[in-house]
Design goal:
The chain is mainly alpha-helical. It has nine helices and no strands.
């Protein structure tokens, strides 16, 4: 448990460095602290027997990716390619390991279909209402769709609905013209992966 938390927190400085080079700096200490908290929740779920050990790489990796991206979007209204694009092969590797470890081929197939469906739906929204959904959200949605599909078909709809409601709630409170959607999307996906519906 402590190794998982330490490793997750240790990725924060590298992510902060990459985001600084992408002109979207985030506080590395805050990222490390939030990543450690997220990893603690992941480890607690695993140790409680909530899901099999082969699923562990998926929520652990999502925590590593979600924290710096959410911070970048909150601070800069951007989801930089430096993290959204590498998420595809990283999540693919984690899902592949989960499938080989015991999830089976159906998990990998759900992930591939989920990525296409979730990414395609967000791309369509961006096409017809580009002011309502940024290109970074679209790039992120494909990889998140893969992990959501692996977590179970209902997770796709649940994450989309939860993210929309969270973004609307933040917009109502902050009363700003632009509210980032990425943090809500990441939080919703993380919760769905932490509490998967079809393992």
């Amino acid at each position: 448990m402590f190794i998982l938390i330490a490793l997750t927190a240790a990725t924060a400085p590298a992510a902060a460095w990459a985001l600084r080079r992408a002109a979207a700096p985030i506080p590395a200490g805050t990222a490390a602290g939030l990543a450690a908290l997220g990893a603690t929740a992941v480890a607690a779920r695993w140790l409680s027997g909530a899901w099999p050990g082969w699923w562990l790489p998926v929520p652990a990796l999502l925590t590593v990716v979600a924290v710096p991206l959410a911070l970048a979007d909150l601070r800069h209204l951007r989801l930089p390619d430096v993290l959204t694009l590498p998420a595809y092969p990283l999540f693919g590797a984690a899902i592949g390991a989960a499938a080989l470890g015991g999830g089976g081929p159906s998990l990998a197939l759900r992930a591939a279909a989920g990525g296409l469906l979730f990414g395609g739906a967000h791309a369509a929204v961006h096409h017809f209402a580009p002011a309502g959904l940024g290109a970074g959200d679209v790039k992120l949605s494909g990889s998140l769709g893969a992990v959501l599909g692996a977590a179970g078909w209902p997770a796709l709809a649940l994450a989309a609905l939860t993210a929309a409601l969270l973004t609307l709630a933040v917009a109502a409170v902050r009363r700003r013209e632009r509210v980032p959607h990425g943090p809500a999307l990441l939080a919703a996906a993380w919760l769905c992966v932490l509490f998967p519906l079809a393992l």
